[in-house]
Structures are given as structure tokens and as C-alpha cells.
Specification:
This protein is mainly alpha-helical. It has six helices and no strands. The protein starts with a helix and ends in a 13-residue tail after the last helix.
Length: 147
């Protein structure tokens, strides 16, 4: 990512942080609209899940200038998602829901350049997760989520 893309993501994320709970709720509502079948993968409290999501995004944003420092954690996340029942196609749906949520939360501040920077950020993280998932013993043939 370029320094300009990193700055766009960091600046826009700071505008989302104050509304993180609402943004997470918007995200999951949109995700389940796009693919109602994904709702069955989530067994726990969705507010808590939303906090986990925003914390993970925050970690990625904070480390954009040094993504190598979080690759191991992102790979672990990808491997865990196999056990939750996540399939490769789900990553595209998540990306679509994420960009839509950012657009709703940021309004006019979600410029085409900012959108492209977020798409690059998500694509990079998702690629690391998927590569790690593909290398697990069960790959994408894991059993559905248990919790």
C-alpha cells in the first residue's frame, strides 16, 4: 500500500471509531442481507462479535505501515475461521458489506480514493487469511461453527 492509501484508511477509520458499535451493527445487518446463510455461523452475542470485529479492524489499521508485524495473528484468524465454517466466497461478501458500512458511516468522506484504499486493505488481509486457511489440515471442508 502507498503512504497515501495508508493515510486515507487511518484518517477515515478515526471517524468510524466513535460510532464503532453502530457501524458493527450496520455491518452484520448488511452481511446477513447479502447472505442470510451466514447468520448460522454466529452463535454468540452479536454486540460482543461487533466489538471483536472493530478491534481486529483497528489492529489492522494501526499496523498498516508494518503489516508484517500482524501476519501471524491474521493467519491464525484465517485458520480459526475454517473451523467456524467460513468458505472462500464468504470473503467477498464480507468485503462488500465492509465497504458498504464504511460508505454509510463516512458519507461524503468515503471518496473513491478512500474506498479504493479500504478495498486494498481488506483484500490484503483477506488474502493472508485465505492462504492460511487453505493450508490447514481441513482446508475449507471444515464442519460448521460450534460457537
Amino acid at each position: 500500500m502507498t503512504p497515501v492509501e495508508i493515510q486515507l484508511v487511518k484518517e477515515s477509520w478515526q471517524k468510524v471509531v466513535p460510532i464503532a458499535d453502530q457501524a458493527a451493527a450496520l455491518f452484520y445487518n448488511r452481511l446477513f442481507e447479502l447472505d442470510p446463510g451466514l447468520k448460522s455461523l454466529f452463535k454468540g452475542d452479536m454486540k460482543n462479535q461487533g466489538r471483536k470485529l472493530t478491534a481486529m479492524i483497528n489492529t489492522a489499521v494501526v499496523n498498516l505501515s508494518n503489516l508484517s508485524s500482524i501476519v501471524g495473528a491474521v493467519e491464525d484468524l484465517g485458520r480459526r475461521h475454517v473451523d467456524y465454517g467460513v468458505l472462500p466466497a464468504h470473503y467477498d461478501t464480507v468485503g462488500t458489506a465492509l465497504l458498504w458500512t464504511l460508505e454509510q458511516g463516512l458519507g461524503d468522506a468515503f471518496t473513491p480514493e478512500t474506498k479504493a484504499a479500504w478495498a486494498e486493505t481488506y483484500g490484503t488481509i483477506a488474502a493472508v487469511m485465505q492462504t492460511a486457511a487453505e493450508k490447514t489440515d481441513s482446508g475449507y471442508s471444515a464442519a460448521p461453527a460450534v460457537g
